[in-house]
Recover the amino acids of this structure.
C-alpha cells in the first residue's frame, strides 16, 4: 500500500521510541514506516539505530511531514544503551508513552553447530533486547499513567518456518508481552505483539527470488503482498488510546497466511481453491 497521506492525530501529545528506526538498503522497512506513521499521528519519536545515517533518513521523512523526531545511536543488546535511550527521550520530551521493539535478526542456526554463538546472538537481539528496553521504559511510562508496548515479531513465532533460533525467539517475544501485561496492567501498561508475514521489505527483496515472491503471494487468501506500511498502521492502532482495551494480543499482519490449512494453500498456489 502507499504511504498514508492523511492522519487523524490519534497520538497527539504522546512520545514514542522506535528501535531499528532506519532501513538497511533502499526503500522502507518496518522500523522506518512505523516511525513515520507514529510521527504523522502527532507523536514525538526517538529513532534508535546502530547507524546514525539510516535513522537520519527516517528523521528527514518525518520532518517533511511536519513531525518531530530525533536520532540516538546505540545497541539494544547493551543495557546501558537501553537505559540511555529512555533517559534521553524523557529528558528531551518529558515523558514516554509508546515503545516499539522492532530490532531483529534472522541468522541461520544449524542444530548441529559446534558452538552456540549464533544461537545466543539471535536470542540476544530478538528477545533480550526487548526485555532490556521494557526494563527501563515501563517505569517511565508508569510515571505518566501507563503506556503501550508493541513488539514486532513474525509469523515464524506462530507457525514453524524452519528456523531453530528465529522461530522460538519470535514466539518468546509474544510470551514476554503477555507477562508484562499481567505484571503491569494495573499500572496502565498494555503490551501487544505484531507478527508480520509475507511482507515486502528491502531485506526481503534482497533475499527472495521472483519465483519465491510469487509463491508466497499466491499462498495467501488475499493473493497480495503486504508491505511495511501495513505493519506500521497496525502498530499505530495498538499504540493509540483507541486500543485501550486490547492487551496481550499476538496480531498477525499476514494476509491470512497463518489461518489457512496446508491443502487449501497448495490449491491456491496451483491455481485457486477446488
Amino acid at each position: 500500500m502507499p504511504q498514508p497521506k492523511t492522519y487523524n492525530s490519534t497520538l497527539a501529545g504522546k512520545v514514542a521510541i522506535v528501535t531499528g528506526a532506519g532501513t538497511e538498503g533502499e526503500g522502507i522497512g518496518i522500523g522506518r514506516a512505523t516511525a513515520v506513521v507514529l510521527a504523522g499521528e502527532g507523536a514525538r519519536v526517538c529513532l534508535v539505530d546502530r547507524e546514525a545515517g539510516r535513522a537520519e533518513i527516517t528523521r528527514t521523512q518525518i520532518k517533511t511531514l511536519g513531525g518531530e523526531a530525533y536520532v540516538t545511536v546505540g545497541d539494544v543488546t547493551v543495557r546501558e544503551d537501553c537505559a540511555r535511550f529512555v533517559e534521553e527521550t524523557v529528558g528531551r520530551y518529558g515523558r514516554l508513552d509508546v515503545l516499539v521493539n522492532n530490532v531483529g535478526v534472522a541468522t541461520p542456526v544449524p542444530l548441529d553447530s559446534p558452538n552456540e554463538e549464533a544461537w545466543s546472538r539471535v536470542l540476544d537481539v530478538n528477545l533480550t533486547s526487548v526485555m532490556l528496553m521494557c526494563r527501563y521504559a515501563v517505569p517511565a511510562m508508569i510515571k505518566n499513567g501507563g503506556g503501550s508496548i508493541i513488539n514486532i515479531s513474525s509469523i515464524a513465532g506462530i507457525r514453524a518456518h524452519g528456523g531453530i533460533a528465529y522461530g522460538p525467539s519470535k514466539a518468546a517475544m509474544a510470551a514476554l508481552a503477555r507477562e508484562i501485561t499481567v505484571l503491569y496492567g494495573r499500572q496502565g501498561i498494555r503490551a501487544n505483539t505484531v507478527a508480520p508475514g509475507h511482507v515486502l521489505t528491502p531485506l526481503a527483496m534482497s533475499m527472495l527470488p521472483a519465483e519465491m515472491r510469487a509463491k508466497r503471494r499466491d499462498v495467501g487468501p488475499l493473493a497480495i503482498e503486504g508491505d511495511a506500511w501495513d505493519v506500521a498502521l497496525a502498530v499505530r492502532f495498538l499504540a493509540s488510546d483507541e486500543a485501550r482495551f486490547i492487551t496481550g494480543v499476538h496480531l498477525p499482519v499476514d494476509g491470512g497466511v497463518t489461518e489457512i490449512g496446508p491443502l487449501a494453500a497448495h490449491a491456491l498456489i496451483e491455481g485457486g481453491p477446488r
